[in-house]
Amino acid sequence: MHLHDPGSNMTEKTSIEFHNVRFCYGEVCAVKGVNFSLPPHQLTVFVGPNGGGKSTLIKLLTGLLKPQEGTITYHKDVEIGYVPQNFAFDMSFPLTVEEMVLQGTLTKQILPFARYSPAQKERAADAIRRVGLSGFERRGISQLSGGQLQRAVIARTLASNADIIALDEPDACLDIDAAKELYGILRTLKGEKTILLASHNIEPALDIADRALYVNKTVREYFSPHALRDELKGGISI
Question: Which of the four pLDDT bands, split at 50, 70 and 90, describes residue 6?
Answer without folding.
Answer: very low
